[in-house]
Write a structure and sequence with these properties.
The chain is of the alpha/beta class. The chain has two domains: 169 residues, Flavin prenyltransferase-like (Rossmann fold), CATH 3.40.50; 199 residues, CoaB-like (Rossmann fold, 3-Layer(aba) Sandwich). The protein is built from 14 helices and 20 strands. Strand 10 and strand 11 form a beta hairpin. It is elongated.
Length: 394
C-alpha cells in the first residue's frame, strides 16, 4: 500500500479501480501526482493515454505513478472492453485532463483515441464517468464546447469545473477531483441537507477580549468533505475554521456565542435533514460585559454564569436528526443521558491528549439502540464512519 497522510484521506475509494484516461493538454504534468493521490485514497489506478498526451509525458512516468502497465493503444486484448467489463460497479472512468478535442469526440460518438474509446464502452456499460477539463479559457467558453458539456451532463457524466486563471481554464485541484470521484459512487447521503456547526466559540468580556475554547474546525471541514463525498445535496458550515473549506460548502461565519446561536437558528429555518454540532462552545456567559476596553493595569473579577447549550435551542425548533459531540474523561459515560435525550447520536471523545486539530483519538458513537467504539482513529476516517452511521438513521 502506498504510504499516505491519514489526515488528508478518508480511504473512500478502497475497493475501487479508477481508470484515468489522459488527453493532450499541458495540464498532463499534474496527472502523475493525481494518480498517487488516488492510490492514497485507496484506489487501484490504471492509466490510458492518447497519442498526443503520451508525447507530452512519457508513459513510463504514469507506470511509475500507478505501478500498472499503461494503455497507449488498443490491441487484441481489446483494452477498452476488458478493463471495464468485470465488476463495473467498482470501476470509475476519470478523463483528465479532458481537452476540447476529447470532449467533442465524447459528445459526438467519435472513438479514434484511447479516452474517447474508453468512454464509448465504459459509459454504455454503466461505469461512472468523471471528467476534469483543462484548456484555454476561450476554448472552454466556446458555445460549441459548452453545448457538448451540457449534452454529456444531461446524460449523467460528472464534471469537475476547471480553475480559471486569466486566459486559462486549469485542471481542478486533486482534492476536488477525488471528492467528485467518491461522490460518483457513494450514495449514503444522496439528496440530504446537512448543517454543520463547527469551530471555536467566543464569549466577549469587553469589545476586544473574549473567553474561548480550543478548537480548529478540522473535524467540521472533514464532516463537510465526507458529506459531499457521500452525496449530500446541500452542506452548510456555521462557525469558523483554520482550514480551507471546499467551494461546494456554504459558509456562514460565526465567532461569538451570540453569532453561533443567531446564525444557527436562522439556518435551521431553511430546512435540513441533520444538524451536526462539533463546535467547541463555551458553557458560560459573562454576567456583565464591559462596554469599554479594560486597561492592562486593572485587576478584574469576572462572573460567569451557565449558558443554555446550543443543541437544546436547536432541538426546540428542529425535528430532524441531531448529532452532538461530547468531550469528557470517560468514553463509557451515558452520553444520551448527559444531553437529556434531546439528541439522536452522540460522539464521545476524551481529552487524555490534545484532541484538537490533525490528531488521532478514541471515539464512541452512541445512539438509542446501540453504540460503536473507534480506537485511535484519525478525523477523516472518524467523520466518514459517523456520517455512514447517521445515514442509516435518516
Amino acid at each position: 500500500m502506498l504510504p499516505y497522510d491519514e489526515n488528508s484521506y478518508s480511504r473512500m475509494l478502497e475497493g475501487y479501480t479508477v481508470i484515468v484516461a489522459t488527453s493532450g493538454s499541458i495540464s498532463i504534468y499534474r496527472i502523475p501526482d493525481l494518480v498517487r493521490d488516488l492510490r492514497r485514497e485507496g484506489a487501484e489506478v490504471i492509466v490510458g493515454m492518447s497519442q498526443s498526451s503520451a508525447v507530452m509525458v512519457s508513459p513510463e512516468v504514469m507506470k511509475w505513478a500507478s505501478e500498472k502497465d499503461v494503455v497507449t493503444e488498443i490491441t487484441g486484448r481489446i483494452e477498452h472492453i476488458s478493463l471495464f467489463s468485470e465488476n463495473p460497479e467498482r470501476k470509475i472512468l476519470l478523463i483528465a485532463p479532458a481537452s476540447y478535442n476529447t470532449l467533442g469526440k465524447m459528445a459526438n460518438g467519435i472513438t479514434d483515441s484511447v479516452p474517447s474509446l474508453f468512454f464509448s464502452f465504459a459509459f454504455g456499460h454503466g461505469v461512472k464517468t468523471v471528467v476534469a477539463p483543462a484548456m484555454h479559457r476561450s476554448m472552454m467558453e466556446n458555445p460549441i464546447n459548452q453545448e457538448n458539456i451540457a449534452k454529456l451532463k444531461s446524460l449523467g457524466v460528472t464534471f469537475v469545473d476547471p480553475i480559471y486563471d486569466d486566459e486559462k481554464a486549469k485542471l481542478s485541484g486533486n482534492a476536488a477531483i477525488i471528492d467528485s470521484l467518491c461522490r460518483a459512487v457513494h450514495r449514503d447521503l444522496y439528496g440530504k441537507r446537512i448543517l454543520i456547526v463547527s469551530g471555536r466559540g467566543e464569549e466577549p468580556i469587553d469589545p476586544v477580549r473574549s473567553i474561548t475554547n480550543a478548537g480548529s474546525g478540522f473535524t467540521g471541514v472533514w464532516l463537510a468533505r465526507n458529506a459531499y463525498r457521500l452525496g449530500a445535496s446541500t452542506i452548510t458550515y456555521v462557525g469558523n475554521t483554520q482550514f480551507d473549506l471546499p467551494g461546494y460548502v456554504g459558509y456562514v461565519e460565526a465567532r461569538s456565542m451570540d453569532e453561533f446561536e443567531d446564525k444557527t437558528m436562522e439556518e435551521i429555518n431553511k430546512g435540513y435533514d441533520a444538524v451536526i454540532v462539533s463546535a467547541a462552545l463555551p458553557d458560560f456567559r459573562v454576567a456583565e460585559r464591559s462596554q469599554r476596553k479594560y486597561s492592562s493595569d486593572e485587576t478584574l473579577k469576572i462572573t460567569l454564569e451557565p449558558r443554555e447549550k446550543l443543541i437544546y435551542r436547536v432541538r426546540e425548533k428542529f425535528r430532524g436528526k441531531l448529532v452532538a459531540f461530547r468531550l469528557t474523561d470517560d468514553l463509557n459515560e451515558d452520553a444520551m443521558a448527559h444531553f437529556d435525550g434531546k439528541i439522536d447520536l452522540a460522539v464521545v471523545n476524551t481529552y487524555d491528549h490534545d484532541p484538537f486539530g490533525r490528531v488521532r483519538n478514541n471515539y464512541r458513537f452512541v445512539w438509542k439502540d446501540g453504540s460503536r467504539f473507534l480506537e485511535n482513529a484519525p478525523k477523516p476516517m472518524m467523520t466518514r464512519m459517523l456520517l455512514e452511521q447517521l445515514s442509516s438513521m435518516i
